Amino acid sequence: MDITFNNDPKLTIFLPFIYFAWHDDVLSKKEITTISDFISSQEWLTKEEKEFLSSKINAGSPPSRSELFHWKEKIDAALASHNKIGNFTELGLLIANAERESFKEEDIQKMAPSFAQFESGLGIMSREVISGFRQKRDTITDKYKTAESFNVTQMTAFLDGSQADIIKTVKKLIGSQEFALNNITDVPEYREKVLKWSKILAKNGLGSYAYPKAHGGKDDIEGYFSIMETLSYHDLSLVIKFGVQFGLWGMSILSLGTEKHYKKYLQAIGKMELIGCFAMTETHHGSNVKGIQTTATYDHKNRSFTIHTPEKYARKEYIGNAANHGEMATVFAKLIIDGKDHGVNAFIVPIRDKGKNTLPGVTIEDCGHKMGLNGVDNGIIYFDNVHIPYENMLDRFAQVSESGEFETPIPSDNRRFFTMLGTLVGGRIGIPRSALAAAKTGLAIAIKYGDKRRQFGPEGGTEVPILNYRMHQRRLMPYLANAYALHFGLQYLTKRFVERTEEEMQEIEALAAGMKAYSTWNTRDTLQECREACGGKGYLSENRIDDLKNDTEIYTTFEGDNTVLMQLTAKNRLGEFRKEFGEMNVATIFNYVLDQAKTTVVEKNPFTTRNTDEEHLKSPEFHLQAFQYREKEIVSTGARRFKKLIDDGLDAFDAANVMHPHMLQIADAYLDRVLLEQFHIQLDKVADEDLKQVLEKLYCLFALNKIEEHKAWYLEQGYMEGSKTKAVRKLVSQLCWEIRQDAVPLVDAFNIPDNCLAPIVTTKSAEA
Amino acid sequence: MDITFNNDPKLTIFLPFIYFAWHDDVLSKKEITTISDFISSQEWLTKEEKEFLSSKINAGSPPSRSELFHWKEKIDAALASHNKIGNFTELGLLIANAERESFKEEDIQKMAPSFAQFESGLGIMSREVISGFRQKRDTITDKYKTAESFNVTQMTAFLDGSQADIIKTVKKLIGSQEFALNNITDVPEYREKVLKWSKILAKNGLGSYAYPKAHGGKDDIEGYFSIMETLSYHDLSLVIKFGVQFGLWGMSILSLGTEKHYKKYLQAIGKMELIGCFAMTETHHGSNVKGIQTTATYDHKNRSFTIHTPEKYARKEYIGNAANHGEMATVFAKLIIDGKDHGVNAFIVPIRDKGKNTLPGVTIEDCGHKMGLNGVDNGIIYFDNVHIPYENMLDRFAQVSESGEFETPIPSDNRRFFTMLGTLVGGRIGIPRSALAAAKTGLAIAIKYGDKRRQFGPEGGTEVPILNYRMHQRRLMPYLANAYALHFGLQYLTKRFVERTEEEMQEIEALAAGMKAYSTWNTRDTLQECREACGGKGYLSENRIDDLKNDTEIYTTFEGDNTVLMQLTAKNRLGEFRKEFGEMNVATIFNYVLDQAKTTVVEKNPFTTRNTDEEHLKSPEFHLQAFQYREKEIVSTGARRFKKLIDDGLDAFDAANVMHPHMLQIADAYLDRVLLEQFHIQLDKVADEDLKQVLEKLYCLFALNKIEEHKAWYLEQGYMEGSKTKAVRKLVSQLCWEIRQDAVPLVDAFNIPDNCLAPIVTTKSAEA
C-alpha cells in the first residue's frame, strides 16, 4: 500500500510546512531544500516515509489543487479546535494527533527542540502565518468606526462665533439651486457664469459689506472676510472675482483715495455696476513692486496725467477683470513731474466703455488658459499715452498741488510706498481664510470618503474602511488639527486687523504676510494629501479636489509670493528682537540671561530632555515652552549669524541671501507659536465638556505634530533626546488613531453645504 | 541767524541717525525718543543747537522731501569718499568733517564711547544700513551666473547610452510640426488629437517594439521603455494612451495569453488597428484586485464563458480606451465552474464593433472630466451576461480542460494570482520612467526661467536672476540631483527586468513597485516646486507645468497606489531579512554580530559621529555607510517590532496596521540605498574629467540631501551628533550654490525638444 497522509497520519505533522511552501509566494527554492533536509534528518521516519514527504515538496511535481484543498481542510479543523496556536510545529502536532495519538507527550518533548530550531531557521513568523490561515478573525482594525463624542451643531456654533448670521446667509445662497456647481470647461461660458454669480452676491448686499455706511456699505470688514471665507466652500473663481471687484478694486479706492472718490465710485462698485481692476503687477515686476515701470506723467497745462507703458514687459499682467468685464482700473505707476520720478502712486484709469469696448490707447490681451481659476478673466493691459483727468489720482498719501508740486505728508518715498501697500493688507487676510475653507472642503471629502471606502481586510473577514488604517490617519488627521488651529489663528488675525491701532500696523502686516504664506502652503499640502487619499475618485473633476487644488495653487504666489512674504515676517521679528536688545538696560539684560538660564535648568536638564511621560508630553506647558524655545532660539541665532556675516565684510545683500532659509525658519517658528497660543486661548473658552475634550485632542495633535516635524532641530539643540522624540512620534500616532473616531463629526462641524462636497460622499448609495 | 546744518556743520554728525529715522519704516516712536534724549544729553551742544536738532526728529513736523533729498546727498558724498564705514557715528563724522574739521581727533576719542553705546542701544545694524545706502555695490549675488563646465552633448550621450538611436527617433517625431502642443481644452477634440498622434507612432513602428519579431515587433522591451520615457517630454495623455494600447492591452495578451492569441491579435494591436482596454480595476476594488467581483461563468454545453457584472460597483472603472476607441478588452474576472470560484483569470471580451457601436450586453459610460490626462478616453464598463467563446480565455497560467475541469500548473490560487500580476510589472517600470521625464521637463523650465527672470537686487544695482538666490537654489537643485539619480536608478531597474531570471522575479517586482512610488512622488514634489518657482508664469497653461503636474498627479495612484506599493516593497525586504536570519548558521551569525560591532566602532564612535570635515562629509564611503546603516537598522527594528506585536497577541492584520508607517520607511531606505549605489557605479564609468566632476557634485548633493532629510533619525540613533548634521546642512547649501552655475547646462543635457518646453524659456526675447 502506498503511503498517504491519511494512512500514515503522523506524517501530517509536516503538513503546515508543506502547505505553506505551496500556498505562499515567499518561500524560495532554498527554503524548500531546508525543509527537505530536515525531513531527511528525522531518524524516526522510514526511508519510504521520507521519500513520500520529499515528493510532496518537489518543485517538479506540485500537488493537485484538490490535494492542496484537502490539506487546508485538515489545517482548518485543527485551527478551529484551538484558539491559540503559537507555531507550525504545534499546529502540525494538532493535525497529526487529531484522529489518534500519533505522538505521545514524551515524543513531543524529545522532538520539540529540533523542530523549534528548524522552524526558526526557516525564518517564518509562524504566529502571523497561522493567524492568516484562520477563516474568522477578531481584529481591532476592522471593528473600529466613527462615533460622535460631541454635539456637532454646538461645535459649528463655537467655530462661527459672532459671525454665525452672515455665514448662514452666505451658505444658504451658495447652497441654492442657482449656485449649483457643474464643472464648466468652456472658458467664456465659465466666466459669464461667475459674473452672473457675482452679481447675485452684489444684489444681496454682500459686495459692499466693508464699505462705509454712507456709501452703501455696512462698515463691517470682519463680515466681509467671513463672506469671502464662506464663499470659498463654493467655486473659487467666484471668490477671486469677488475679491478682485469688492476687495482689490473697491478697497484701493477706499484706502488710497479720498472722499470725492468714495462718493463717485463706491456705491456702483458695491452693486457690481462698475466693474474694475487692480493693476499693480507687471510682467517684469511682480514681487518687486517698487520696480514697476509704468509711468503717470503730469501735464501742467491740462492738470492731467498721461499713463504709459514704456516697454513691452512693463505691461500690467495677470489682472483680474481685465480680459472681459472691467471698465476701470486702479493703475500703479511712477509719477513723473517735469522729468522727476516721485515713486509709485495709484490712478483710476478707464479702460472700457459701457459697451465693453476697449478705450483708445488701451490694449488688452487675454492671459489665456490657467491651471485653475478659469472663471476669472485675467488679462494683460498696455497703455499708450492714455490721458486721465487730475481728479483720477488716488490722493490720500500724495497729491499734486495746484502749482504742480508733488506734496505728501510722508516725506520718504520708501515709507510712503510701504504705507500705501500697508493699506492693502486686507488681501493677506482674505486669501489665507479662503485657503483654509478650501482645505476644510478637501478634508471633509477625503475623511468622509475614507470612512466609507473599504479596501483589504483580514483574510476571510470583511474589508476595512480605509480611514481605519494608521497610515491613512497619519496622512489626514494632522491636517485636520491644522485646520482647527488655523481657524482660530485666522480669527485672531482678523480681530487684530479690525481693532488695529497705528502703532500695531507693522506687526499686524507681518503677521498677515506670514499667515497668508503659512495657510496657503498648508492648503497646498492638505489638498495634495486629500487627492491621494481619495485615489482614482479624487482625480475625477466631479469630486471637486481637482478644482480646489488647481484654483488654490496660485494662492502661494499671488498677494505676494510666499517665500518673499515669509522674509517680510522674519524681518519684522528680527527687528522686534533687535529692538528688545537695543532698549535693554542692565536690568533687562539680567532678566534675559536669567530667563535663558532658567530654560537650561528647567527645560534642558537631563530629566526633562528624556521625559517620555504621556502626561508631560500632553501638557500645554511643555508645548508652549518647546514652541517658545524654538522661536526665541531661531531668532537670536538668526540675528547673531546675520551680524557675523556683515561683520565679516559681506555685503548686506549677500548676507541676506545666505540668511534666506534661516529667515523662513524664523517666520515659521513665530507663526507656529502664535497658532498654538490662540488655539489654547480658545480651549479656555469652551464651556461644554465634550467639545472641550475633542478640541484638546486636536490641540495636542497640532502641538505634537509640529514638534515632531521639527524634531531634528530639537535634537540638534539637545532640547530633547532621541527617546523623547520617539515617544512624541508614538503619541502622534495614538492621537491620530483616537481622533479618527471623531473625524467625520469634526468635518461635519464645518457645516459645508452639500452641493459644495463631492458625489462620492454625498450620494446616499455606497459609491465609495 | 537761524541754525542750519549748513552753517553749523558739526551738527551733521547726527545726520545719519536723523535721515534713517525718516527714511526707514522700522524705527518706532520710542526709538525717536531715544535719539532725542541722547541729543539732549550732549554737553557740547548749545541749547539752541539742541532745539534745532530735536525739531528735526519731531514726528509732528517732518522734513520736506527736498530737505530729505539734500541730507541724502551729503550722505552719498561721504560714502563715496570712503569704502569702509562701520557705523553711523563714523559716517556722521565724515559728513561733519567734510568741508572743515568740525571735530579733532581728540574730540572723537572722547565722544566715541558714548556714541557707540547710543548706537548699539538703538539696535540698528549700522553696517547693513550703510551698505544699503550705497548707490553702487559690489555683491557676489548679482555677479553670479551660468557657466558651462562640461560638454553638454557628451553628457546627453552619456545619459542616453545604448538607447541613443531610438531616443533620437522619438525626439525627432515629437519635435515635428505634426506634434505641436496646443492646450486643447475641448475633451472630444483632445481625445481625437491623441488618437491621431498614437496612430502616427504606430505607423512608425513604435507601438510593437516590445512584441516578438514573429508578430511584427522588434522584441526590444528596453527600447519600448525608452520610447515611453522619451514620449513623456511631450503630451502625457499620449503617453498613457500609448501605454494602455501597446503596454497594458497588448502586453496582457503577450503575458497572459498563448501563441494562438499572439497570432490573432498582436500585429493588429501594434498597428493600432485593434484598439483595446485593460479592464481590471472595479469601482469597489482598486488596490485590492483579489477582491474583484466580475464573474466569468463557464458553460459546459457551448464551451463558452459568460462575463457578468453582478452589482453596480463591480463595474470596471477608469478603463483607458473604453469611453470612445476600444473594440476589445482584457477583462479580469473570477472564473466560476459549476458554482465553484476558481479565482481571478483574464478574458478577451469584444466591446464595440468596427463602427464603434457598443455591443449587446455591454454598457459603457464616460468617466468624465479629470484633473489631467483628458486626452485619454477613460470609461466605465458594465457587462450584462456577455458570452465569449472558449478561446478568449487568456490561458497561459490556467485553462479549462475539454471535460470542463480547471487546470493550472500553479496549484495555489494565491500564487497563481501573484504570478499573473507579476507578468504585468512592466507598467511599474514605464510609469516611473515617464514620471521622471515629466520632472526633467519641469526642471528644465523652472531652471531656465530662474536663470532669466530677475527680481530685486542690491539698492541702486541691477536686479538679480532669481536662481542666484540661495532659497531658490535650495528649492530646485536637490530635485535636479534626484533626477540624475533616478535616471541611473531606473536604467538599472530596466536592465534588471530585461535580464531577469525566474529566481530574481520577486526581488525585481519589489524593486519596481518601490521605484514606481519613489519616482512618482519625486515628480509630484519636483513639479510643485517648479510651479511655485515660476510664480504667475508657472500658472499659465501655455508654460506646461499645468499639464505636467495635473497629468502626473494620478501617477501616484494608478498602476498601484503608492502607499500600497511601498508596503509590497517593504514586505519583500522584511522577507529577505528574515531569510538571511533564517538561513544563518553559527558562522554567519558571528559575522553579522561582528559587522554590527564594526559599525559601532567605526561609524558610531565619538570621533565619527562628530566628524564635520568636508572631506569626510563628501566621501562616498561615508554616504554609503550612512545609507546602509539606515537601511539595515530600519529593517531589523521593523522585524523586531512586528514580531513583538505578534508575540504580544495582536492579530497579524492589526500588527501590520500598526507597522504601516515603519514599512514605508523600510522601502524608502532601501530605495535610497539602491539609487546611491547605482549613481556611484555610473560615476566610475565616466571617462571625461569635466563630466565626472559635475556628476560627482550632483551625486554628493543627492547623498547629503537625503542624509539631511533623515537627520532626525540619525540623531535619534546617535549615528550623528548635532554638529555633524549642521555641517551637512551647510554643505548642502554650498553644493546648491556651486551646482547653480551648471544648472542650465545640466538640464540642457536632457535635450528636451524645444516645442516641449515653455514659451517663457524658449522665446528669444527676455520674456522672463
UniProtKB/TrEMBL annotation, chains A, B:
GO terms for biological process: fatty acid beta-oxidation using acyl-CoA oxidase; lipid homeostasis. This is acyl-CoA oxidase. InterPro entries: ACOX_C_alpha1 (IPR055060), Acyl-CoA_Oxase/DH_mid-dom (IPR006091), Acyl-CoA_Oxase/DH_mid-dom_sf (IPR046373), Acyl-CoA_oxidase (IPR012258), Acyl-CoA_oxidase_C (IPR002655), AcylCo_DH-like_C (IPR036250), AcylCoA_DH/ox_N (IPR013786), AcylCoA_DH/ox_N_sf (IPR037069). One of its GO terms (molecular function) is fatty acid binding. Keywords: FAD, Fatty acid metabolism, Flavoprotein, Lipid metabolism, Oxidoreductase, Peroxisome. Its main location: other. Residues 620-757 form the Acyl-CoA oxidase C-terminal domain. It is found in: Peroxisome. Residues 422-571 form the Acyl-CoA oxidase C-alpha1 domain. Belongs to the acyl-CoA oxidase family. Coiled coil: none annotated. It comes from Flavobacterium album.
